[in-house]
């Protein structure tokens, strides 16, 4: 029969966690033998309180770690919600800005349409405003006729068309409207371009 590991048995005894029968079973001896040895060498189960205190401390630490992890998860969720809210606000502002710009472009289109519908009246107005100087020149009237001329109206039409094309592209981007193929409507135009141009 192998000699019992009395050093290990003493350590287990002093720890006070296992019962004498459990210690005896692990080492293949009787609990009576352990009692006799403990009495003879004056072993005490004085570590039980320390072991319990350590176990309690570990439990508290694990509870704290679990709580911290839970709080971190809550903080992450709050951060995601706050960031998403900020992005949503910016996108709504972009949509509002684009809507106002498009409404203004349509008003300018209407104004140009009205101008083109009655060019004759514009020319008559120019004649009424005619006020030449001593040299027979009227620079203000000349400028007026240049503004209402066909080339200028064509240029205004082209500029407004380009503006509307840009705004339509921006509007589709702001509302996340995608196309199967890239369109020339929004090619090379983005919200960043719009705000950089108009800032």
Could you characterize what this model shows?
It is a single chain. The chain is 76% helix and 0% strand. The chain has 199 residues and is mainly alpha-helical. α2 packs across α3 (31-41) and α4 packs antiparallel against α7. Mean pLDDT is 77; it is low at 183-188.
In DSSP terms (H or I, runs of 4 or more residues), the helix count works out at 8
Largest sheet report: none
Please indicate the percent range of residues in DSSP E strands (runs of 2 or more).
under 5%
How far the N terminus sits from the C terminus, by CA atoms, comes to 94 Å
Give the uncertain stretches in residue-range form: 183-188
Mean pLDDT across residues: 77
| SSE sequence, one letter per element | HHHHHHHH
CA-based shape = rod-shaped
Strand tally? 0
Q: Approximately how much helix is present in the residues?
A: over 70%
Broad structural category: mainly alpha
Count of the separate structural domains: 2
**Rg from alpha-carbon coordinates:** 45 Å
């Amino acid at each position: 029969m192998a000699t019992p590991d009395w050093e290990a048995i003493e350590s287990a005894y002093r720890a006070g966690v296992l019962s004498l029968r459990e210690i005896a079973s692990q080492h293949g001896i009787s609990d009576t033998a352990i009692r006799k040895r403990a009495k003879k060498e004056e072993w005490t189960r004085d570590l039980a309180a320390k072991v319990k205190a350590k176990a309690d401390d570990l439990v508290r630490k694990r509870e704290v770690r679990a709580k911290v992890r839970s709080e971190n998860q809550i903080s992450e969720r709050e951060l995601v919600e706050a960031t998403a809210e900020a992005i949503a606000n910016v996108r709504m502002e972009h949509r509002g800005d684009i809507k106002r710009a498009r409404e203004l472009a349509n008003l300018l289109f209407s104004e140009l349409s009205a101008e083109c519908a009655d060019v004759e009246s514009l020319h008559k107005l120019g004649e009424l405003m005619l006020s030449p100087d001593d040299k027979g020149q009227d620079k203000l009237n000349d400028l007026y006729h240049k503004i209402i001329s066909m080339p200028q109206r064509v240029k205004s039409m082209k500029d407004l068309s380009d503006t509307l094309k840009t705004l339509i592209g921006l509007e589709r981007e702001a509302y996340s409207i995608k196309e199967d193929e890239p369109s020339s409507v929004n090619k090379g135009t983005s919200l960043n371009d719009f705000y950089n141009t108009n800032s």
